[in-house]
Amino acid sequence: MRETLVVGAVIGGLASLLFLVERFIPLRRARHPLAGRLIVNLAFALIAFATVTLAVRPAAVATLAWTGRASFGLLHLLALPEAARPLLAFLLMDLTFYWWHRANHRIRLLWRFHNVHHIDPDLDVTTAFRFHFGELVFSSAFRVVQIGLIGPSLWAYAAYELVFQAGTLFHHSNVRLPIRLERLLNRVLVTPRMHGIHHSQVMTETNSNYSTVLPWWDRLHSTLGLNVPQAGIEIGIPAYARVEDNRLWNAIAIPFRRQRSYWRREDGATDKREKGGTEGDTTFLAE
Ligand SMILES: [Zn+2]
Q: How far apart (Å, rounded) are the C-alpha atoms in residues 168 and 43?
């Protein structure tokens, strides 16, 4: 219980800090009024919180208890020095989340739900809370498999979870860091410019940069894309760019409706980078 409060305070504090800073030094220019997005994303956050409490966390905790009791999972099987275990647990958790995120884009059923996260027309720290409850229910099944096969200790799992949440807030945020600092950070962390490219309306750009905490998995799987300045990025999914798509009820119902051709715009054109864009940040993350 005390741990939950500490984690809640850390995550709440970081979210508030990023929210404040991105108002003063934004990376991308907002295209939609904040108030409307704020209400929708806050509502998604409340539903997500309930889903995590009722499904994701119980599934994770039960699997952790079971792997501990039964000594199940890769980390229990390997003869490792004690210090290496939490380290390997961290790497494996992050790698498997890379695969899970990629599966959310590749598998049509999962994408129906993950799409709702991507149709937010602007990207900032509030987007980090905007996940459809359907995606979270699927992710609790994934976590049973993930934790079951890896077998991390409770503490290694809790430490990863905290870094995972903090990393998710950070890379969704719209904070404009000095480019040289961000390049340095990007060697070991997924950063706002890197994840901003993942939220682009251009399909090939959305299908890049899937990593959550460590950026190395994209390099390893050849899905890294750093050569797009933020000023040229339109956030969202082309076929879901109508204002009404982002009203709360519609956003909740979209996965259950007939799907549009995601990458085709209303005017029939497919995604292409036609204009470079000059408003906002024009730097390249790759040197
Ligand atoms: Zn995604």
A: 18
Q: State in Å: Cα 127 to ligand 1 middle.
A: 11
191 Cα: distance to centroid of ligand 1 (angstroms): 14
| 174-225 pLDDT per residue, tens | 999 999 999 999 999 999 999 999 999 999 999 999 999 999 999 999 999 9
Q: Determine the Cα–Cα distance for residues 168 and 182; give it in Å rounded to an integer.
A: 16
Range of the domain at 225: 2-26+35-256
Q: Is residue 286 part of a domain?
A: no
Report how many domains make up the chain: 1
Residue range 252-283, pLDDT digits in tens: 999 999 999 999 887 766 666 655 556 678 88
Q: How far apart are CA 179 and CA 115, in angstroms?
A: 29
Is residue 275 included in any domain, yes or no?
Answer: no
d(CA 207, ligand 1 centre) in Å: 8
- Centre of ligand 1 from the C-alpha of residue 118, in Å: 7
Question: Residue 219 in 3-state DSSP?
Answer: helix
Question: What's the 76 CA to ligand 1 centre distance in angstroms?
Answer: 32
